[in-house]
Amino acid sequence: MAGARSDLKASLLKHRRTTFERVEKFISQDYFVDCNLRGRLFGDRCALASLSYFKTSKRIPYSEAIGEEFSPIKVGDSFGQTWHTCWFKVELSIPKKWTGKEVHLLWESDGEGMVWRDAQPVQSLTREGEKTSYMLTDSLKETDPHGLTLYLEVACNGLFGAGKGSMIAPPDLDKTFSLNRAELVIYNRDVRELLVDFEILLDMAKLLGEENQRSFQALYVANQMVNLCDVDNPATFPAVHELARSVFCQKNGESQHIIHAMGHCHIDTAWLWPYEETVRKCARSWVTVIRLMEKNPDFTFVCSQAQQFEWVKAYYPGLYATIQEFAKRGRFIPVGGTWVEMDGNLPSGESMVRQFLQGQRFFQQEFGKLCLEFWLPDTFGYSAQLPQIMRGCGICRFLTQKLSWNLVNTFPHNTFSWEGIDGSRVLAHFPPADSYGLSGRVEEMLRTVKNNKDKGRVNHSVALFGFGDGGGGPTQKMLDRLLRMKDTDGLPRVQMSVPDRFFSALEEEKAQLCTWVGELFLELHNGTYTTHGQIKKGNRECERLLHDVEILSSLALVQKSSFQYPSVQLQHLWRLLLLNQFHDVLPGSCIQLVVEDAMRYYSEIRSSGAQLLKDATRSLCGELLANRDKSSDTILVINTLPWERTEVISRTGPQGSETLALVTVPSMGFCVLQESLPPPHPVTVSKEADGSVTLANGIIQACLDPLGRIVSLSLLHPEREAVPEGCQANQFVMFDDVPLYWDAWDVMDYHLETRKPIAHLLKPLEISIPGGLRGSVTFSLQLSKSSVLTQEVILDAASPYISFRTQVDWNEAHKFLKVEFPAKVRSPNATYEIQFGHLQRPTHWNTSWDWAQFEVWSHKWADLSEHGFGVALLNDCKYGCSVHGNVMSLSLLRAPKSPDATADIGRHQFTYAVMPHLDSFQDAEVIRQAYNLNFPLHGTEGSPLGPGPVWSAFSVLSPAIVLETVKQAEDRPDALVIRLYESHGSTVDTWLQMGFPVHEAVVCDLLERPDPNISLVLEEHRLKLSFRPFQILSILLVLKGQSRA
């Protein structure tokens, strides 16, 4: 096939295609391997001395595995079962005649493998990750041991789980795994080097195009290399390699684009595999990175997610110590600053702060430095408050690429300034190759340059290479490819780099950059706002619980310095919650095993959190509770929100019966009440002959038809109707929900064409509470043959909203349930709550950018207002919603079948509310009412000695300011950290009132580092504060009389 004449004559190249295919066949792994170069990659072969295995359904440590009883197995046999682990004992005897040779163990099997040598993990062996050989020695010496024993730990799942028939299908639990190859070989590294040379030259010839002189030069040289190379005579190889170098050594011009290459291994903390398997994915991937670093001194690798580092530290301490050493050398680089790569839409503002607080503190403690860049390559949209949160956590740089997945509009930038709703800016970069898992190919580097949308503004971009999502990471071949493209004429300049060097280069050119203001909305995966409603409910409830535990524990600490603030327990619970906010868990785009893990973690948070809440309450109000009389009607009511609240609460009477009481509770404090307040206007409930029911409380009045739909909803003073004539609010509608591919992720615009109103009444409207402090009616609807909805519609005295306590027994496939509220309001925009603020989105579809937002997300409320009047929709655990025209919709339940065939099947309970209001939503206190719905008052029976005490720990004079968080400072047990934000979108000067003495008040950032440049006016029991629109402000309050011990 090839000749090696030293008197090589001029090329007889006549035809580009035949020459190109000639070179292709010379390195093909499918054609002519008996005589081509690829067929010489391996030399002599040798069978293993012995091979045995054992199977376990558990993920057990090495020390336990090697003590098990192993049974013989041979190549061609099947092993395992999905999610099991097979341990292989590999006994080797290397032939003495192989002295001086590079010797590898070749291993090809299904599953993900880890090689253990001398009781340490040393390398992964995973066919999907192009890692099928382990180097035993690079040059066998006579004195080296020729016999040794290795162990292979093989997880019975692939890089992308074990989907049945497709990647995102539910796991195939009957899948078997096969061993296809296991032998010793001599590895001819000079052949491998030539194969990479040929590959790069072929790619240059193909991709630079026939109009490019370098394309022909690369092809001509590759053809000459084939002529010169005698595959049976390795002595010809150096000259062939020199021919390739003659191309690679021709340098670029100074103006050529610079690509900053960084090793990368995106590992989903859970997705198509459970959390436990991710621990091993991290070890397999990272130990292989370490091996590459030992052989490639310029190789750098970036790695995010503190949770994954913590797992490796706990389960693989030797590997972790090595990682720390390479981190000190600036080669294994922690990035991101968060506990996990969380969802960018659904976590609360405080949860996002805690992602950074826990992540940055971990990286500071373990690696001696904070991360300077937020690294979130694969999540489903990015909140407009992230720039401010980043900056508050010491980060002013941001990298992602997910917006390249937009279904409708192409995002116009790769490098830009991103401005949040408060005006904070960060430098953002989207790698132009539109991937975080490149292979280091010529095509990818050329695509990086071609796709760069900011040509002329910046001349730098990032290329992240390495197998990702399921782990794997970079390979030696990727590094070899990139080395040949370091400075080769015709290609962009590719340099191994680090994030700081890259972003510093961008910062020198940032004056040229454009600015994007507001959210980065992903025009895809908007089904994730609704999928797996139980996960989303667990998230909202646990966020609320930890909020309340921290506040009551802080107030207990203020009252009694002897109180032991549960900082260790709270950190554990927060980390569990943050873990479940990973971008394939909270969105619901994971397999059933992950859902079970997530629900178990929520259960632990609920159980432990409830106990911590009791402990704090007992300390805070211990004397009151100690004197309680079981026959007493008195009740201790605690309010964890920073404003006074007058609400109806439910309490258990002396004989166990449930009674209602109207109470007024001070801001962030408590009171003891002996009897209910009289309602300013009792609730009335009246039923008409046609089965309709009217509820009224002096503030609002609602008329429901027999199907439970609101045909009239009006404010009473002054009278103003909220439902258009002829329309029905609280209308349940079902849609067909069959996306193009990403089942749990996507809801497509065409689902709106399949709208089917629900009108099958199962149980008619009945009065369940006749009025007074509360009025309510119940009814049931048959949603389908197999799904039923039961709802209690509730109106409380003194309440500005009517609430809908809903239970659904849901047994559907590819259906989408929503509830609609047409409003007698006209506005081109609706307002949606996001983290620490709100934003507006259009109610029309004028442009493709508008239309792409047919399904959006919000947190506790959405509002549609015109001048002087509006309607707000509140909820306690839902996120998906939309407002089109004048119809407000809340997305309730989906029924995807991949990757979890059981998603959302079962019973769901949730509450939403509708609130008509005068004036703007700010002046109508919509924000406060949404908080009230989500943070119920806490009631505990008690009996005071004397008059009932009333105490308020905090209150803010301005209604625009929300005191979101009160907690013990991380590093100062004698101090609290409080976090407030401006919620209206206004500039505010106000006072914070405190019900306890404070020694000092200091502004700090979100990592609780004091800011010496800002001074506060602290007077006795009050603190003057100033805010710009949507500003988040954290303050360190040093308590009087507290010790720093």
Automatic annotation (TrEMBL):
<dbReference type="InterPro" id="IPR000602">
    <property type="entry name" value="Glyco_hydro_38_N"/>
</dbReference>
<feature type="domain" description="Glycoside hydrolase family 38 central">
    <location>
        <begin position="523"/>
        <end position="602"/>
    </location>
</feature>
<dbReference type="InterPro" id="IPR015341">
    <property type="entry name" value="Glyco_hydro_38_cen"/>
</dbReference>
<keyword id="KW-0326">Glycosidase</keyword>
<dbReference type="InterPro" id="IPR011330">
    <property type="entry name" value="Glyco_hydro/deAcase_b/a-brl"/>
</dbReference>
<dbReference type="GO" id="GO:0009313">
    <property type="term" value="P:oligosaccharide catabolic process"/>
</dbReference>
<dbReference type="GO" id="GO:0030246">
    <property type="term" value="F:carbohydrate binding"/>
</dbReference>
<dbReference type="Pfam" id="PF17677">
    <property type="entry name" value="Glyco_hydro38C2"/>
</dbReference>
<dbReference type="InterPro" id="IPR011682">
    <property type="entry name" value="Glyco_hydro_38_C"/>
</dbReference>
<keyword id="KW-0479">Metal-binding</keyword>
<comment type="similarity">
    <text>Belongs to the glycosyl hydrolase 38 family.</text>
</comment>
<dbReference type="InterPro" id="IPR027291">
    <property type="entry name" value="Glyco_hydro_38_N_sf"/>
</dbReference>
<dbReference type="GO" id="GO:0004559">
    <property type="term" value="F:alpha-mannosidase activity"/>
</dbReference>
<dbReference type="Pfam" id="PF07748">
    <property type="entry name" value="Glyco_hydro_38C"/>
</dbReference>
<dbReference type="Pfam" id="PF22907">
    <property type="entry name" value="Ams1-like_1st"/>
</dbReference>
<dbReference type="InterPro" id="IPR041147">
    <property type="entry name" value="GH38_C"/>
</dbReference>
<dbReference type="Pfam" id="PF01074">
    <property type="entry name" value="Glyco_hydro_38N"/>
</dbReference>
<dbReference type="InterPro" id="IPR011013">
    <property type="entry name" value="Gal_mutarotase_sf_dom"/>
</dbReference>
<keyword id="KW-0378">Hydrolase</keyword>
<protein>
    <recommendedName>
        <fullName>alpha-mannosidase</fullName>
        <ecNumber>3.2.1.24</ecNumber>
    </recommendedName>
</protein>
<dbReference type="InterPro" id="IPR028995">
    <property type="entry name" value="Glyco_hydro_57/38_cen_sf"/>
</dbReference>
<dbReference type="InterPro" id="IPR054723">
    <property type="entry name" value="Ams1-like_N"/>
</dbReference>
<dbReference type="GO" id="GO:0046872">
    <property type="term" value="F:metal ion binding"/>
</dbReference>
<dbReference type="InterPro" id="IPR037094">
    <property type="entry name" value="Glyco_hydro_38_cen_sf"/>
</dbReference>
<dbReference type="Pfam" id="PF09261">
    <property type="entry name" value="Alpha-mann_mid"/>
</dbReference>
<dbReference type="GO" id="GO:0006013">
    <property type="term" value="P:mannose metabolic process"/>
</dbReference>
